[in-house]
Amino acid sequence: MSREQAGNFIRAIAAENPEPETELLYTDAFTLLVAVVMSAQATDAMVNKVTPALFAAAPNPAAMAALGAEGIGQLIRRIGLWQGKARNVAALSAMLVEKHGGEVPRDRASLEALPGVGRKTANVVLNVMFGEATMAVDTHIFRLGNRTGLAPGKNVREVEDGLVKRIPPELLRDAHHWLILHGRYICKARMPECWRCNARAFCNYRDKVMHPPVR
Predict the structure, then answer these.
(1) pLDDT, tens digit, 9 for 90 and up, residues 105-159
(2) What pLDDT is stored for residue 18 in this prediction?
(3) Residue-range definition of the domain harbouring residue 89
């Protein structure tokens, strides 16, 4: 897909949602960071069911570190991989207190040095909280990048690099949200709902589904 076509694709899906936002519930950089760590292999909807009680009990890194992995675990047992996530959240909270004065760092290297924080999580925090034009590639964006031809790649980094290269710079920051929401609700895994996709004219997917299934 050319840069011009990619720009048209993004503008088309942006038309329905001019000011996109993450669907994760958060109040500041710390609660966003924790919510994103929790979202690995879990839906935003499920994360949002457990984080209100967690953040009420521990709204900042010092309180979260004091709660500890066991205390955190008791509050997040409904999400997948909760044991590992509880350990990571406790450890990253302690590190924030010890090395960053209880503040979430604004640079990628420091973010990725935190337990449980990889490139995707760092990209989300840098994008949402600090206004950087990063592209966090989740399963939805990986699928969409390959399916549509927007940014084909064998792994998430190849798709990320392709998207950053093709999407117009002025659209890149919000494109992260537009693509996630588009993949979540329209360009779905099992059957893309092409019949209601604003961007289908700019999509290279050959097997477009132009009619809803008969029930």
Answers:
(1) 999 999 999 999 999 999 999 999 999 999 999 999 999 999 999 999 999 999 9
(2) 85
(3) 29-128
Query: Up-side HSE of residue 74: CA atoms within 13 Å toward CB?
Result: 7
Q: Is 120 a catalytic residue?
A: yes
Q: What's CA 3's distance to the chain center, in Å?
A: 23
Among 128, 148, 168, where does a domain finish? 128
What's residue 101's pLDDT?
96
Q: What is the domain-level CATH number for residue 156?
A: 1.10.1670.10
> Using CA atoms, how far apart are residues 208 and 203, in angstroms rounded to an integer?
9
Euclidean distance between the first and final Cα of the chain, in Å?
35
Q: Is 208 a catalytic residue?
A: no
> Cα separation of 128 and 22, whole Å?
8
Select which of 138, 154, 165, 208 is catalytic.
138
Q: Is the residue at 105 inside a domain?
A: yes
Out of 28, 85, 99, 120, the active site residue is 120
Q: Using the 3D structure, point to which of 79, 99, 128 is the last residue of a domain.
A: 128
Spell out the residues 6+ positions from residue 211 whose beta carbon is closer than 8 angstroms to its own: 195
Asked if 34 contacts 24 with a C-beta cutoff of 8 angstroms, the reply is no
